Amino acid sequence: MADDKDPERQLKDLAELKDQLESIQRRVENEVQAGIPQGGTLLASPFLKGALAGFVVAKLRSTAILGVCLGICTGVCVAQNYPVPNIEQTVRDYASSLRKGPGK
Questions:
Q1: Distance between CA atoms of 57 and 65, rounded to whole angstroms?
Q2: Contact 88, 43 (CB under 8 A)
Q3: What is the DSSP string of 25-55?
Q4: Which pLDDT does position 1 carry in this prediction?
Q5: 3-class SS at 61?
Q6: Ramachandran region of residue 36, left (φ > 0), alpha (ψ -120 to 50) or beta?
Q7: Is the pLDDT assigned to residue 103 strictly greater than 50?
Q8: What's CA 72's distance to the chain center, in Å?
Q9: How far, in Å, CA of 63 to CA of 20, rounded?
Q10: Domain residues of the chain, as ranges?
């Protein structure tokens, strides 16, 4: 209890918390600049989903570059205009429900 009242210890704790907060802020800013949504990974990025859709279209068609561009544009437009579900979170929830078993 005596350590809780020590102003020097409290100051060190505050400095440590400030450093942690700045580190978190830098990480979030870097993720935002990279286009990664909050609370997600690169797999949750609409850009990557659009590129993947374009790649699939490109494999089905002979014009690969046009398919990738079309997929990226489509993914960006859909992500901006519609509430696109987070596929990564949905898969994680489904996998966790399979591990728990039925009725649990």
A1: 10
A2: yes
A3: HHHHHHHHHHTPPTT--GGG-HHHHHHHHHH
A4: 45
A5: coil
A6: beta
A7: yes
A8: 18
A9: 49
A10: 58-84
* Gap between the Cα atoms of 59 and 31, Å rounded: 30
- Percent helix, strand, coil in the chain, to 5, is 80, 0, 20
Residue 98 has pLDDT above 50, yes or no: yes
Looking at the whole model, is its pTM more than 0.70? no
- For residue 44, give both structure tokens: 């949750």
d(CA 32, CA 80) in angstroms, rounded, equals 16
Q: Which of 5-19, 25-39, 56-70 is predicted most confidently?
A: 5-19
How many Cβ atoms sit within 10 Å of the Cβ of residue 14? 10
Mean pLDDT of the chain: 76
**Cα-Cα-Cα-Cα dihedral sign, residues 30, 35, 41, 43:** negative
Pair of tokens at residue 45: 């990025």
Give yes or no for a contact between 73 and 80, defined as CB atoms under 8 angstroms apart. no
Q: Which residue, 68, 75, 74, 80, is CA-closest to 49? A: 75
